């Protein structure tokens, strides 16, 4: 007789059914986790990522292809730069770690680079945990090249692969993130640095889970090393980036995620996101899971165009941005906002409704002034009140 199905195996079986029996799972990486943590209210992304659905392929099947992703040229350039940084047993990389993060330690003249090969992500994660423990006990510079870390996300394991993890002689651990965007005069694009910091914060969280299983628990440093090309060359340079804020925010947001099995239990029987399903059936399956679209999704999710179209159709105010949505309180659609502004609905004592009605009055007054200006005969503008003339020209009389 087959062994009884445990809760874990039952969830994996359910997620495989949602993905499609013959569809391979797409690994959930740190970049996707950081984007998921930035929008924890989106149950659609949570279940699709948890089930290992390839959202780019799904978007094509829905007729809303996405331009989100890295170009092949950028991918090849990044791999070439990373290989250069890690050449000669990672000598240059360890020199940068020593210079930027641990100058008081002995120079890394000779470092250990353990082999992390194993079968499957679970085997690689276990091999990485063993290598980290051995390196901590050895109290010597150790470079882990592409280790595998496991992180529990909404009840489902996610396997993450940072560029490198360095173990210091004092037993502490540092995440190393290697990017191909340039660092000009010691600084880089703030938006790209922020994205790298959020991605590294996920690795720090995963490392902390590994460290918590050791006694005593090693210190996971909250200053990561960001390695980039120097100016317009291919020479590596680095900067220490404090990710404590990103780590706290990401950890809090991931903890808020609804458990994947809870979302799966609410889906209709037979729901499947396999891209070979008929378009109407596939659209119904995707729409059966609530989404939380915002303009920021365009830079972080392959399904953003599809969700934006449906958000616009329903008139959701989140289409205009999360900040505006937060200011409108209980008014969730554009129709509700317009109705409250025109005095057709809403409590007049509500500050949001009062502000909307005041804004509508100011708009009507501005339109009346503009109409009055347009109705004047040529040369008669000087006869208008000074306030109207100033509001029309953007300043006072000239």
Which key features would you list for this structure?
398 residues, alpha+beta, disordered N terminus
- Give the tally of β-strands: 7
Strand order of the largest sheet: 1-4-5-6-7
Estimated radius of gyration: 27 Å
Classification by helices and strands: alpha+beta
Annotation field: number of helices: 16
Shape: globular
Q: Mean pLDDT, as a whole number?
A: 85
Helix-strand sequence: HHHHHHHEEEEEHEEHHHHHHHH
Helical residue percent band:
40-55%
User: Between the first and last Cα atoms, what is the distance in angstroms?
Assistant: 94 Å
Strand content: 5-15%
Q: Largest sheet, if any?
A: 5 strands, mixed
Provide the low-confidence segments as ranges. Answer: 1-5, 377-398
Structure description:
The chain is α+β, with helices and mostly antiparallel strands. It contains 16 helices and seven strands. The chain has a five-stranded mixed β-sheet with strand order 1-4-5-6-7, sandwiched between helices. Strands 2-3 form a two-stranded antiparallel ribbon. Strand 5 (173-178), helix 8 and strand 6 form a beta-alpha-beta unit. The longest helix has 24 residues, at 351-374. The radius of gyration is 27 Å and the shape is globular. Mean pLDDT is 85; it is low at 1-5 and 377-398.
Write a concise synopsis of the structure shown:
The protein has 16 helices and seven strands.
How do the helices and strands line up, and which of them pair or pack?
Elements lengths: L6 H13 L10 H9 L4 H8 L4 H7 L10 H14 L1 H15 L18 H19 L3 E4 L3 E5 L2 E5 L3 E4 L5 E6 L11 H23 L10 E7 L6 E7 L1 H13 L3 H6 L13 H9 L16 H11 L7 H6 L6 H8 L9 H24 L11 H8 L5
Parallel strand pairs: 5-6
Antiparallel strand pairs: 1-4, 2-3, 4-5, 6-7
